[in-house]
Amino acid sequence: MKKTFSYLVILLLFSACSDTQNTQNNNQNWPSFRGQFASGILDNSNIPLEWNVEEDFNVSWKTPIPGLGHSSPVIWGDKIFITTAISENEEEYLKVGLYGDIAPVMDSSIHEFKVYCLNKNNGKIIWEQLAHKGVPVTKRHTKSSNANPTSATDGKHLIAFFGSDGLYCYNLQGELLWSKDLGRLNAGPYTNPDVEWGFASSPVIYNAKVIVQCDFLGDSFLASFDVETGREIWRTSRDEISTWSTPTVIEVDGKAQIIVNGFKHIGAYDFETGKEIWWMKGGGDAPVPTPVFANNLIFISSAHGRMSPIYAINPEAIGDIGLGEDETSNDHIEWSVKRGGAYMTTPLIYGDYLYNLKNNGLLSCFNARSGELIYKESLKPGGGMSASGIASDGRLFFTSELGDVFVVKAGTEYKLLAKNPLDDICMSTPAISNGAIYFRTQHYVMAISNN
């Protein structure tokens, strides 16, 4: 009896240790755009405060990746995944900075749409797969790429999305499991339907389903697919213009909802059926930022055209929750800012504060619960900022298009702790895992950690 009891204790201890280890491993994964549920946060990571790529200071590895892609790195276990589009042209045209030229890149060359898997610890390429080869179905903006959407993984599957050039599902060994042609997803300004800017909304995997938000100059829709087979489960039409935002899945009272940004239709949909739960209009007319759920509020922002709002929405909202012309709150919207949202970057909610970064480098800090403006300071990036902010261990990381990473102290007082160069253009949001921060620049994927 005593021996049996001892074995039982040992078994329970082993199980507890295994559960703890699994939790720690899961916490080190960065499975989709901005990590778990697009939060952009991973604490206890021990990321260095300072580094310098040119001088090889605190740089663990740096691996060249051909082509052009603005998709962010995603991580599962020891594997890091990235997508790219390789043109027949030797160097694809990319113009960064603050400018208003809406003309697309006139490139009708054949492209190779590829998926790369790298070893997270040393940067060596484990495998690469050619998803598709051909002339891109739609053109792209001069600041865009033909590989904008960030991949998503659940530890068994990897979903790579190239917009009009296909949706692809691989296992983590690089074997293609299924693919989908979702048609011509021409995302561009609704005021000029002949202009093409390129698709950018990233897929999300949740409870064995793949969710894609396809808002474009056509029959926009939100859809759910079975991750194992690619079978379409439901498709809900959206009366919407082009958006470049990624959906976010949250749970409310034990039921999953899909939260989407938009111009004509910001809202929530039932995860299982695709039916509308709540909706509103009143955003910028080219929505890019991803919705974020934190402090039991849904935060949605955008900025383009007449409006640049930030909304803090109650997750139990239902029906039409739109604000009146002179309202900043109602029974469903806790608080809002009519002008102050960001055009490109997703807001970062860290602790009790919301950090909003505009394209020109103006950083605003709000009380996330009340909407009170705490401070507004300029990072002075010397150009544009398109990557979204992330946070770890009391620090905020904001990356400029010119490749400077601004490290800011979290909290109510603005303090710039460091400015670290990447020595390359950077348009994508970094990832964090196991003591390192991973950047995808124009020409490289690199790992920064304490050497």
Number of helices: 1
Q: End-to-end distance, in Å?
A: 52 Å
Total individual domains = 1
Shape: globular
What's the arrangement of strands in the largest beta sheet?
16-17-18-19-23
The biggest beta sheet reads: 5 strands, mixed
Q: Assembly state here? A: single chain
Share of residues in helices: under 10%
Averaged pLDDT:
93
What fraction of residues sit in β-strands?
35-45%
- Provide the low-confidence segments as ranges: 1-25
CATH superfamily: YVTN repeat-like/Quinoprotein amine dehydrogenase
CATH topology name, in short, is Methylamine Dehydrogenase, Chain H
Structure description:
By secondary structure, the chain is mostly beta strands. The chain has a single domain (32-449), classed as YVTN repeat-like/Quinoprotein amine dehydrogenase (Methylamine Dehydrogenase, Chain H, 7 Propeller). Helix content is 6%, strand content 38%. It contains 1 helix and 35 strands. It has one helix spanning 2-27; strands spanning 59-64, 74-76, 79-87, 104-105, 111-119, 125-134, 140-141, 152-153, 157-161, 167-171, 176-180, 204-206, 209-214, 221-226, 232-237, 248-252, 255-260, 266-270, 276-280, 292-294, 297-301, 310-313, 319-320, 333-337, 348-350, 353-357, 362-367, 373-378, 390-392, 395-399, 404-409, 416-421, 431-433, 436-440, 444-449. Strands 16-17-18-19-23 form a 5-stranded mixed beta sheet, with no helix packed on it. The N and C termini lie far apart (52 Å). Residues 1-25 have low confidence and may be disordered.
